[in-house]
Each structure stands twice: as structure tokens, then as C-alpha cells.
Amino acid sequence: MSATSAPGAVPTAPVKKSRRSGGGARRVLVYVLLSLGLLVMSAPFLWMAVSAFKTQTDLSASPPVWLPTEWTLENFRQLLDKLDLPLYFMNSVIVAVLVTVSNLVFCSMLGYALAKLNFAGRNKIFGLVLGALMVPGNLMLLPLFVLMSKLQLIDSYAGLVLPFAAGAFGVFLMRQFMQSIPDELLEAARMDGAGEWYIFWRIVMPLVKPALATLSIFTFLGSWNNFVWPLIATNDPDKYTLPVALATFATDPNKAGGSNGMLMAGSFLIVLPVLVVFIALQRHFTQGIATAGMK
Fold first, then answer.
1. What is the sign, positive or negative, of the torsion defined by CA atoms of 203, 198, 176, 283?
2. Which distant-in-sequence residues (6+ apart) come within 8 Å of 219 by Cβ?
3. Cβ(98)–Cβ(85) under 8 Å?
4. Greatest CA span in the chain, whole angstroms?
5. pLDDT one-digit tens code per residue, 238-286
6. pTM as predicted
7. 274 vs 224 pLDDT, higher one
8. What's the start-to-end Cα distance of the chain, in Å?
9. Are the beta carbons of 219 and 170 closer than 8 angstroms?
10. Alpha carbons within 13 A on the beta-carbon side of 93
11. What's the DSSP call for residue 62?
């Protein structure tokens, strides 16, 4: 004899199916919204990248043409003919690499000291670091210019690098990440006779590679795209970085001549190294962001 359900019983299977279908609809809606957000954020970059390969006819077309009717490298050729691009590109590379390496070394050292060493005034120094994070960067331009002028470092690589050799954000990031390293591991190394330099370079630094990758991306990106300080600190065109050189080129009617194609090509070349760095370090980037605030 088969069992029958009670007269007032409500079947649960349809409810579960409804919940599953509702969850699937919400998931699709989230994916659609995220895709639209990604499209809106990436549209200016895609327009710039595509416009770098357009002819002047396509650039001046009305209504605008999204894809080029004829792909061309003429904008890049004209840009190389009228602008000493290798010189400015090398200037940007030198400055960005030196700033990034300096931040990785100095921020890691100070972050390690604030996270793992006990000394008088440690909390006060960390408070100064947090306070420096709240100071707008533009507020420091005038004092930095006066200081670099007195040190006679204007129109030099040192004048472009030293003001940004160590940043408060990098110190905070490395300090927070290094706090996740067990103290027992460092104490065991000290009991075995290891010095602080050995512990820092051979034990701590290999363990904080995700944080180093994150700091590298942020620092390289900020230094590569920095426009205001190189504009202020350089009077010699031979020391211009790419953003300054391209901006000067764009405002010179004898060079750019109102050619949006050359400007798009130059902008594309400025963004390209940043994309390469991000793609190379993206595996560590997400992990570094996710664990930077954990202890």
C-alpha cells in the first residue's frame, strides 16, 4: 500500500525549483550588469586603440566610425618622424623603473621594521605614515620644487626619482602584508643565528611576492602616468617623459598640426607598457590585494 501525503501538505520540490530558477536569473542579471560596466569603463581605451590605426578620413567622419574602413600605421610613422619618441620613451622607462625599484626596497624595509621589530616610537612612526596618506599629493609640489631647486636637481633624473623613491601607501601595504608572517618563523631563524638582514632578504621577501607585485603595478603605473611633476621639474626637452612630451607635441601646431591620429597613436604607446606590466604580474596582483589587510 503506497503512502499518501497529508491533505494540507505543500510539496517542496516546486519551491526548490523556483528558488533555483530565481538564483539563476539573478546571476544572469549580475553578469549583464558587470558586462555593461566593463564595456563603459573600457570604451574610451578601445576607442583610443582603434583610432590609432584609422585614417584621417575615418577620424573626421560624422557620424563617428567605430572600426577603421582601412587599417593603417601611418599615424605611428608620422609620430616617429616628428617626435623623438625613443628618447622620451627611454626617459619614462628610466624614471618609472628607478621609482618602482626604490619603492620596493625602501617600503619593504620600513614595512618590515614597523611590522616585526620592536623599537621606541614605532607606533608614532606608523601614525606619521597614516597621516601622510591623508595629505594631497598636489599640496607637496611647491615644497618639493623648492627642495629640488636648492639641491640643484632640476632637469635631472634624480630630481624626477627622489621625491617618489618611497611612498606612504607602499609602506602601509608592506607593513600590513608582513604582519601576516608568523613571528615564530622569524624567532626560529634568529635562534639558528640568522641576522636581521638575512631574515629580511632570504625569508621575508620571498614570502611577500604578491604584495611586491601589487606595489610594483601601482608604483609603475603612477610613475609612468605622472605628468604634473615632470612638467614642473624639467625645463630641458631632452629630459621630458612621454606624457610631457606628448602634451607639448599636441599643443605645437608645427608638429601635431591638429592630427588626432598621431595623438591617439602616442597615447596608445604610453598605455602599452602599463598593460604589459599588469598582464605579467596579474597572478600576484589579486592575491596581494585580497590579503594586504589580513593578519
1. negative
2. 99, 100, 103, 104, 167, 170
3. no
4. 101
5. 889 988 988 888 777 666 555 677 888 888 888 888 888 777 777 766 6
6. 0.78
7. 224
8. 62
9. yes
10. 10
11. S
Buried b (16+ CB within 10 A) or exposed e, 235-256: eeeebbbbbbbbebbbeeeebb
When pLDDT is cut at 50, 70 and 90, the band that residue 105 belongs to is very high
Give the long-range contacts of residues 200-206, CB within 8 A, separation 24 or more.
200/108, 200/109, 200/112, 204/108, 204/112, 204/116, 204/178, 205/108
Predicted confidence (pLDDT) per residue in 165-219, tens digit:
988 999 999 998 898 888 898 999 889 888 889 999 999 998 888 889 889 888 9
Which single residue is written with the C-alpha cell 611612498? 167
Angle at 107 between CA 281 and CA 163, to 5 degrees: 100
What is d(CA 205, CA 29) in angstroms, rounded to the nearest whole number? 42
- Type of residue at 122: R
Grid cell digits, residue 139 = 599640496
Q: Which residue has the cell 622569524?
A: 186
**Segment holding 18, helix H or strand E:** helix 13-51
Closest among 70, 130, 100, 125 to 217, alpha carbons compared: 100
> Within a 13 Å sphere around the CA of 206, how many CA atoms are in the beta-carbon half?
5
In whole angstroms, give the CA distance from residue 262 to residue 250: 9
- Cell (9 digits) for 181: 608572517
Task: Write the DSSP assignment of 225-277 as a string of letters.
Answer: T--HHHHHH--SGGG--HHHHHHHHHT-TTTTTT-HHHHHHHHHHHHHHHHHH
CA dihedral 114, 119, 120, 123 (to 10 degrees): 20
Residue 161: the pLDDT is: 93
